[in-house]
Amino acid sequence: MEPCTFCRIIAGDAPATWVEREEHAVAFAPLPDSALAPGHTLVVPVEHTDDLLSAGPVGLAATFALAQRVARAMRGALGATGTVLLQASGEDAGQSVRHLHVHVVPCWSDDGTVHWPEPPSAHVVEGDPHAALAEMFE
């Protein structure tokens, strides 16, 4: 099986515009045509994992810790007044590359965009969905 796009980037077999490389997570620019804002950055664990549900604790912690540092850098270097983290797990959520990744998107008051799902889901769950979730932890 051919390595995924992000594994190829991490291995140096595909070009990337690097923001940061660490032992367990890396950050790089998305393809120019897919950038949501100036400075939009992808943060991924070095170890391949398909998605949030299959991630191990080390890669997951490193990925989100690096995403936080990238967001702080966006504030300092780009003057971003906010950031949005976008993460999709699974095809039905819109995940296009089967390697866990977090989009860190800088925001400004004049950027004219909203990164929030609209409209809300039309899916219906019988009963109280939060009670069902809480039962999974008992």
UniProtKB/TrEMBL annotation:
Residues 5-114 form the HIT domain. Gene3D superfamilies: HIT-like (3.30.428.10). A motif (Histidine triad motif) lies at residues 99-103. PROSITE patterns: HIT_1, HIT_2. This is HIT domain-containing protein.
